[in-house]
Design brief:
By secondary structure, the chain is of the alpha/beta class. The protein is built from ten helices and seven strands.
Length: about 220
């Protein structure tokens, strides 16, 4: 089984080297695709010719969908560039799909051990277990199911949330794998973590209430 590992990037010069080091030693049958939204900070120079880079319109949903359309893998795995991924990710996804899973994610951890972060980690993983996965948890899906659902919705934010909601609406159960992706906790370091958690929850509430997505995106930029 081939897995297409898709990484949307935009001006990731500070994180790309660490990701490349992980990819270079990652066991499994991979197709690795970087989807670049127009980086100008040297990101592309760092990647060089090591892996294919697809130039596409900026916007995480656009970038991921564009790369997915070019991908040849049986499974698509979408990973943020600042993540630390499980070394046995291939084996875990392979086993899950062999057991009939159609989509899923990993458990999440943070590289910041501040106050209330254990609580944040717990509720993030609990939310995913109930069917709502976010992009920093490494969403993966069979190519056929990803196409059936229409890919990620073309939104400036909440594309992962809406993707999960659509999966739930079609009654396609999530498979949360035991491995853990470690993601950046920088947004929680900037201010009191509990406040950031509340703000993120509030943005999801606004989305469910139908508040204009551009307004939600503006508020999100304020807490990044």
């Amino acid at each position: 089984m081939k897995i297409s590992l898709i990484l949307p990037v935009y001006n990731e010069s500070k994180t790309i080297s660490a990701m490349l080091s992980q990819l270079d030693s990652l066991p499994g049958n991979w197709e690795i695709l970087f989807a670049d939204g127009g980086s100008t900070d040297g990101t592309l120079d760092i990647i060089g010719n090591r892996y294919p880079v697809l130039a596409c319109p900026k916007g995480r949903a656009n970038q991921m969908n564009y790369a997915a359309a070019q991908a040849s893998g049986d499974v698509l795995w979408f990973v943020h560039c600042d993540s630390k991924i499980p070394t046995d990710a291939y084996a875990q996804i392979h086993q899950a799909t062999a057991n009939g899973a159609k989509w899923g994610c990993f458990h999440i951890g943070f590289d910041y051990d501040g106050p209330f972060m254990d609580c944040n980690t717990y509720f993030s993983n609990r939310r995913a277990k109930k069917g709502i996965a976010f992009g920093d948890q490494g969403i993966w899906a069979k190519q056929s199911v990803f196409g059936e659902i229409g890919g990620f919705p073309n939104l400036p934010i909440m594309e992962d949330y809406e993707f999960s909601l659509r999966m739930k609406a079609k009654k396609i159960p999530i498979c949360q794998l035991p491995g853990r992706i470690i993601t950046s906790g920088r947004r929680y370091e900037k201010r009191f973590p509990l406040l950031t958690m509340w703000q993120m929850f509030y943005l999801r509430c606004l989305y469910r209430r139908g508040v204009d997505i551009q307004e939600i995106a503006r508020r999100y930029r304020d807490i990044r």
